Amino acid sequence: MITDTHAALEKCGDLFRSDPVGSNMVAAALSPAVDFELWRVSDAGTTVGAAFRAGPMCTVTDLVAGAVDLIGDVLPIDAPFSVDGPAGAAATVAGRWMTRSNGTVIGLELNRMYRLGTLAEPSKRRKGKAFVTERERIDHAAEWSVGFGSNTGRERSVDNARAEMERAVNESRLIEWRVKGEVVSQLIISAVRFGVVRIGQVYTQPEFRKRGHAAALIAAVSAQQLGRQKVDEAILSAPASNPSTNRLYRRLGFEPAIEMLRIDLVPGIPD
């Protein structure tokens, strides 16, 4: 188990470099600003799997069979828990957790991760410009983040949202789309890990939706990020149940890469 960001990136760097897109959910979550535990599974010195845990949530990379049991056996089973990652790995870790806890699945969400192929211009070109969000907008950004959670079925408190938005602003990772000086849409970019940057939490205020603002913001941010020397890939994900978002991402040139599964679990009564 590793709890230091630098050590985690160094010790698991072989896995992160060999599969930078598939392991990005874990690699990008590593941050000195977050209390975490990272379990690394190695075989003859080679990393064959990793699992990131912060609170009641575990995110896994793709895993070989032996790694599933090792990681599944160290996860806490005394309270509700969630597992996220490539569908096969997440399902098998969750199965191991349920065997140990006599637990039950209470929620499933299939997400499709996309990687950018050739960026296409949005079909609706909108006047506007992307800006890095400034500190005075943190409270508003947190409210929008709560709205994003409500829209996607992942409710979150204002305090948690504000803490995340504050970290993103401090690290220049919260980007907004302004039209005539008014902010109409926002998104977060991850820290760049092994050449990959992930776009997430794309949110447009309800009164400005269906006008192409989110598409314009995603396209602008993708182009800007790929222009950086250390960025090779831009990725994002969408719930498989949201056809309009999936169509939008494909129109912009994003191509399906990995099926991701989040599984919410509760422990049962011991036999």
- Second CATH tier, the architecture of the largest domain: 3-Layer(aba) Sandwich
Major beta sheet summary: 11 strands, mixed
Q: Which structural category do the helix and sheet elements fall into? A: alpha+beta
The parts where pLDDT drops under 50 for at least 5 residues are none
Stated plainly, the CATH topology of the largest domain is called Aminopeptidase
How are the secondary structure elements laid out?
Layout: H1 5-11, H2 13-18, H3 24-27, E1 37-43, E2 46-54, E3 57-60, H4 65-72, E4 81-86, H5 87-101, E5 104-116, E6 129-132, H6 138-152, H7 158-170, E7 174-179, E8 182-189, E9 196-204, H8 213-226, E10 233-239, H9 243-251, E11 254-266
Parallel strand pairs: 3-4, 9-10
Antiparallel strand pairs: 1-2, 2-3, 4-11, 5-10, 5-11, 6-7, 7-8, 8-9
